[in-house]
Amino acid sequence: MKKKVFALLCSLTLVAGLLIGCTGDDTSDTTTDVVVEDTAAEDTADAGETQDAAEGPFDITVIIKATDSDYWQILASGALAAAEQSDGMIRVTIDGPPSELDIAQQVTIFENAIQAGPDGIVIAATSGETVVNAVEEATAAGIPVVALDEYIPSGDVVTFLATDHAAASAETADLMVAQWESEGIDPSGMDVVVISAVAGAGVNVARTNGFIDRIQELVPDINVLETQYADNDIARATDIAGNLIAANPNLIGIFGDNNHMGVGIALAIEETGRQDIITYAFDANQQQVDAIQAGNLTGMVVQDPWGMGFNGVLDVVRAIQGEGASLPASVAVPVNVVTAENINDADIQELLSQHIVH
Amino acid sequence: MSSNKNQIKKVKFHVGKTEIFLLAVLALLFIIFAVATPVFFRFSNIMNLLRQTSIYGIVALGMVFVIISSGIDLSVGSVLGFSGTVVALMVTNNISIPVAIILAILACAAIGAMNGVLIYDGNVPPFIATMGMMSLVRATLMLMTNARMISGLPENFLAIARFNPLGIPLLAIVWILLSLIALFIARKTVFGRNVYAYGSNKEAARLSGIHIRLTVYGTYIFSAVMCAIAGILITSRLSNAAPTTGTGYELDAIAASVVGGASLNGGQGSVIGAFLGAIIMSTLRQGGTLLGVNSFIMEIIIALLIIAAVLLDQIQRKRGGKKS
Questions:
Q1: Contact A298, A178 (CB under 8 A)
Q2: Which of A8, A181, A281, A347 would suit a FRET pair with B169, their CA atoms being 20 to 30 Å apart?
């Protein structure tokens, strides 16, 4: 018996080793150090202007929420682009936990980054409160911190760049009402509903309330049905949307608060053939692009994580150069609402190509 | 030995009563929802209900065997996701659909066999073995896909879930067929009887010469194969394979089995019970949405239903125990 167990353990270890070996250099490594090489370009004439306040090159550590998601990878590539365009003046290192659930690990990464002593830190905190101490520690050590995406309740943060989720969702409510108007639909007394991925998560609550508040403001006697929660599961979102459509003949609008909800809603529209219902969702993916082109989804809100990463790095460099005080406390990063009308525009196509990695 | 036979008979009778009780509950729910909303009893809505239940109804079929054998399979959600991703990777790489389906089922059967090896040969408690497998398979899936969705599946593959012969979704037909097969296995085959015997009394089963290794392997392989089929169907229905698909489905499948009268102590439960348990749970969920009931209240009702089902089961057992 013991021998068997031993053999079993050995084989399991082997399998595990194989798995890790196969994929080790893909995405499993949590520290993707990409350092832009110094080149002779630095010595050329155009470097003259920027060398007054602080001497480059600047080492910037960018800490993302999770390495397993496209959204954070896009943000990282924006940050790296800021380095590439700096002629070697900025060097960016990307770090972050593998999953957004690893809140404690992100704090550890942050603390280790401070020990490594970069010139500046840009962080998209998974939970703002948990990193307050680390932000203050970094600032005390002379390392300025720029916050992205998630608000950090500390006066030490140089500047905060994020999507205004409530305002962006309210924009879809504006578009929805305008579209009903143009189609001659009177929304008074009709039904709208939100399908939300999770209950109680800050960003989702902001999106859901942003939509509901605006639609009630524009159409005071519209009937907002009970918000439904779908466990961030596409299948469940499809079922819920299908049931809502079946149960409510007066349903004229659905808002999904992330891209999984959007895919689910679009599938339900396809299954029920109710393309007359106006549907919007937050965030982009390929399925939603297809759905917009097929008429099963009216539109989606596309954020700009690339710009957030790019500008976050430039802002922290300004802070290093002593211009931190001139930066605003917070900056709303603009979003784009993509619909069938603008989906083929060149700038939208470029934006989407950042989001949808094939 | 004769007392043992008696016990098995009693178990069967008890299961029959549970099934009648479940049918009554289901009929009551149908009446309530039909009265409350005219939409509910429409043919299209009943078909919608069947389609919505079919995925985790299929998972529950495997789970009920595992629970009857006094085990538990927490890896079902991950195996379902694994199957969907594997089949999606193959069909997007021009492997023919039938071949891809067979390979995905075989790959999942191998995972089920690994569960069996850990539990029977390794003596690892089923909870731990399948919990480990749940994380292992899910993490492997994330590595394989870089945590990205696989889309762009061929039309012929998507047609599987869109096929509605006579207006009945193919998903529901597959679920009902698999339920009939599972029912046959449970009632008419040596393997089925062995699962019950092993679950109700391991020592007695060992002494009476039942092939325990095959029973344990078979149970977990069957569960994994059900998940494989469910994973293929859900991928076809959703037109893509998300690596997170199936997260949390193990709890739905356990709930359906338990509501259907299966006991986590083993030896008790039925395929019909799991079938009805699954449909009762999704009827409640759907009815809640149709009536516009607050979704948290609906979750509370479902939670109470699960607890009540187990509580009733325990009370019945106590009474039965006193009599004999």
A1: no
A2: A281
Report which residue type is found at A156. D
Q: Which residues contact A246 (CB under 8 A, 6 or more apart)?
A: A272, B39, B42, B44, B45, B48, B290
Per CATH, the number for A55-163+303-327 is 3.40.50.2300
Contact residues on chain B for A247, CB-CB shorter than 8 A: 37, 39, 289-292
What class, spelled out in words, does domain B2-323 have in CATH? mainly alpha
**Burial environment of residue B139 by CB neighbours within 10 A (0 to 12, 13 to 18, 19 or more):** middle
User: Which has the minimum average pLDDT: A205-219, B47-61, B121-135, B280-294?
Assistant: B280-294
Q: How far, CA to CA in Å, does A273 sit from each of A90, A234, A268, A312, B240?
A: 53, 18, 8, 44, 20
Distance CA B206, CA B228 (A): 30
Structure-token pair, residue B23: 């049918």
> Is it the case that residue A145 has pLDDT exceeding 90?
yes
Q: Which CATH superfamily is domain A165-302 in?
A: Response regulator (3.40.50.2300)
Tell me if B147 and A27 make a contact (CB, 8 A cut-off): yes
Q: Which residue of chain A has the CA closest to B38?
A: A247
pLDDT at B242: 85
B 52-91 residues with CB < 8 A to A: 52, 55
CATH 3.40.50.2300 domain span(s) along chain A = 55-163+303-327, 165-302
Cβ distance of B121 and A4 shorter than 8 Å: yes
Q: Which residue has the tokens 């409350």?
A: B36
**DSSP 8-class letter at A258:** S
Contact present, A248 and A191 (Cβ < 8 Å): yes
ipTM over 0.85: no
pTM of the full structure: 0.75
Q: If we measure between CA atoms, which residue out of A242, A306, A319 comes closest to residue A274?
A: A242
pLDDT of B36 > 60? The answer is: yes
